[in-house]
Amino acid sequence: MQVSLLYYRYPSSTGGSRAFDRAETGVSWSYRDVLTFGLSAIHVIGAKNQPLRGAADINLHWPLAGHFSLSAGAGITQSLAAPYRPYHHVYNSPASHAYANYAYSSRTDHYSYGHMGLLWSDGPWRIELDRIVAAPETQQQWANLDASPWIATISWSF
Fold first, then answer.
1. Would you tell me how many other CB atoms lie within 10 Å of the CB of residue 79?
2. Per-residue pLDDT tens for 34-45?
3. Of 96, 151, 93, whose CA–CA distance to 127 is shortest?
4. Three-state secondary structure along 27-87?
5. d(Cα 2, Cα 4) in Å, to the nearest integer?
6. C-beta atoms surrounding 46 within 10 Å
7. pLDDT for 91-139, tens place per residue?
8. CA dihedral of 148, 108, 10, 118, whole degrees rounded to 10
């Protein structure tokens, strides 16, 4: 079992990334360093009258030859900010009621994600390279944040 407390603060001169500033607490259960299941509660910094957001994920590190492992995982989380929906046009019905036409009008308050990659570990050192993916409906609802689909992690445990 592992308990975590994380604080994310993103620097920005425009303030646009402040919507992602958050404090997060979580608990993870690991089975033989192969399978890990985690639950988290997230508080958006500066959000007023907003309940905690939840997240859950599962990860697998399957041993390969030498110090290498296959790394894979999937998760779901409640959105930190409202999804972006492009506005197309307004039209009037025969009864003169105005209607808005959105490209993606079904709003969801969560998104799902996953990763797959390769992990190398030796003693306290761990290096991991993963390809990150999000569910197609998530990619359509959110504005393009130009985030890289690849992530590299180098860590040392003490």
1. 15
2. 999 999 999 888
3. 151
4. EEEEECCCEEEEEEEEEECCCCCCCCEEEEEEEEEEECCCCEEEEEEEEEEECCCCCCCCE
5. 7
6. 10
7. 555 554 444 444 444 446 778 899 999 999 999 999 999 999 987 766 5
8. -40
Residue 54 and residue 38 in contact, taking contact as beta carbons nearer than 8 Å: no
Only one residue has tokens 């969560």, namely 110
Of 16, 22, 77, 79, nearest to 47 by C-alpha is: 22
Please answer whether residues 117 and 71 qualify as being in contact, where contact means their C-beta atoms are separated by less than 8 angstroms. Answer: yes
Contact in structure between 36 and 76 (CB atoms under 8 Å): no
Alpha carbon dihedral 48, 50, 51, 53, in 10-degree steps, equals -110
50 neighbors 58 (Cβ within 8 angstroms)? no
Single-letter amino acid, residue 150: W
The answer to whether 90 and 101 are in contact (CB under 8 A) is: yes
Q: Specify the pTM.
A: 0.65
